[in-house]
Specification:
- By secondary structure, the protein is α+β, with helices and mostly antiparallel strands.
- Helices cover 33% and strands 32% of the residues.
- It has helices at residues 17-22, 35-52, 83-87, 114-124, 152-162, 173-179, 188-195, and strands spanning 2-7, 10-15, 58-67, 71-78, 95-103, 106-111, 134-138, 141-147, 167-168, 181-184.
- The strands form two sheets. Strands 1-2-4-3-5 form a five-stranded mixed beta sheet.
- β7 (134-138) and β8 form a beta hairpin.
- The longest helix is centred in the first third of the chain and has 18 residues, at 35-52.
- The radius of gyration is 19 Å and the shape is globular.
- InterPro entries: MecA_C_sf (IPR038471), Neg-reg_MecA (IPR008681).
- This is Adaptor protein.
- Belongs to the MecA family.
- It holds the Pfam family MecA.
Amino acid sequence: MRVERLGRDKIRVFLTFDDLVERGIEKEDMWRDIPRVHELFNDMMEQAYEELGFEVSGPVAVEVFALPAQGMVVVVTRGRPKDHEWMDDQDEELYELEVTLEESDQVVFQFDDLEAIVQAAHRTLPMTESGMGRVYMYEGRYYLALDNECGTSAFDDFIAVLSEYGQTTTTTEAVLIEYGTTVFAEDGLVNLVRYFPA
């Protein structure tokens, strides 16, 4: 489980499939109101408090993004607490969860710099028969948007290698197209290898 802050009232939690399996949770359980999911949420909030000082009570919006081969990304946005909530120590912290789930066959990887995405392309291109992916630059980072084009088990291996160089992100391709710069609109891996030889 990895936690990062997105803003004053928003955090992002990356859950691997191992995190879910350890707790006996299936992907489909994430939008069910069951004790195991509540325990997972409490664990996430505890880690967010310990690592980021992020504390929640009251209304919380939870967005769950299921990523192929990678697990899930959970974005938690807290509502503004009313003044009396800070004053009343008798109240237990209660979460009012509003959960939405999105699932996609597409995955977007974020890379810190050009060298990282080029190295990833050289490692992964031989694993696929297609050029795969679109490459974007946005806010100083590089992004590779991928569709599952090579079958489930092969895609899992492919994603595992990419994870050595970058990380999945909840930034959507629509955001990258609108606000970023399109580097390669198609055949991203092929073009990275072609223009940046090892």
